Amino acid sequence: MKLIKHAKEKSGPPAPLARGGAPLWPIRRLQTEIDRLFEEPFGAWLAPDVSSFEGWMPVVDVYEDKNNVYLKAEIPGMKKEEFEVYMSGENLNLAGERKVETEEKTTESYRSERYFGRFHRSIPLPVPVDAGKIDAHYRDGVLTITCPKTAEALRKQVEVKID
User: Fold this and answer.
1) Which of 152, 127, 154, 16 is nearest to 70 (CA)?
2) I need a surface site. Which of 18, 49, 118, 129 has the fewest CB within 10 A?
3) What number of other Cβ atoms are within 10 A of residue 142's Cβ?
4) 93-98 long-range contacts, Cβ below 8 Å, gap at least 24?
């Protein structure tokens, strides 16, 4: 049996999703890993693959109540000056860079699993929000963002009359 190596596609962060769409980046990641397995059947056991940390993005929870949309993102080990939060259209964006700590030349490294480098995450919000009133707090590696809904997005209670 002869294995043919195909040109590898350049991987990057997943494209922003349309409103109401399911996140597809885990499926794309799985497809990339399956392709890599067929390209290098024994490569993962012979030499560890550091590309598994490419494209790291903070994990995010998004939820809402009557007046606000909330977002919580895990960005451990970073200072607030090392990342930024901004709105772009209907998406809330997180971007930053985790810098490499100084390494000791006298010690020998056996394993390094922490990701260092740039990241960018674009999160589509479920309703329009007032970008001028967004509030963000960062504590213990967790970024909490409160996005007030616009007046048009607020749900209005309609009284139902019984005849």
Assistant:
1) 127
2) 18
3) 14
4) 93/120, 93/121, 93/122, 93/123, 94/58, 94/60, 94/119, 94/120, 94/121, 94/123, 94/143, 95/119, 95/120, 95/121
- pLDDT average, residue stretch 5-16: 53
111 or 132, which is more confident?
Answer: 132
Confidence at residue 43, expressed as pLDDT on a 0 to 100 scale: 54
Question: How far is CA 31 from each of CA 26, 52, 82, rounded to the nearest angstrom?
Answer: 9, 13, 32
Integer distance in angstroms from the first to the last C-alpha of the chain? 78
Mean pLDDT calculated for residue range 17-42: 69
Residue length of the chain: 163
**What pLDDT is recorded for position 116?**
75
In percent, the amount of the chain with pLDDT more than 70 equals: 66
Report angle CA 140, 24, 45 to the nearest 5 degrees: 80
Both tokens of 137, joined, read: 């707090």
Residue 53: strand, helix, or coil: helix
Q: Would you say 108 and 125 are in contact if contact means Cβ atoms under 8 Å apart? A: no
In this structure, of 22-26, 100-104, 112-116, the range with the lowest mean pLDDT score is: 100-104
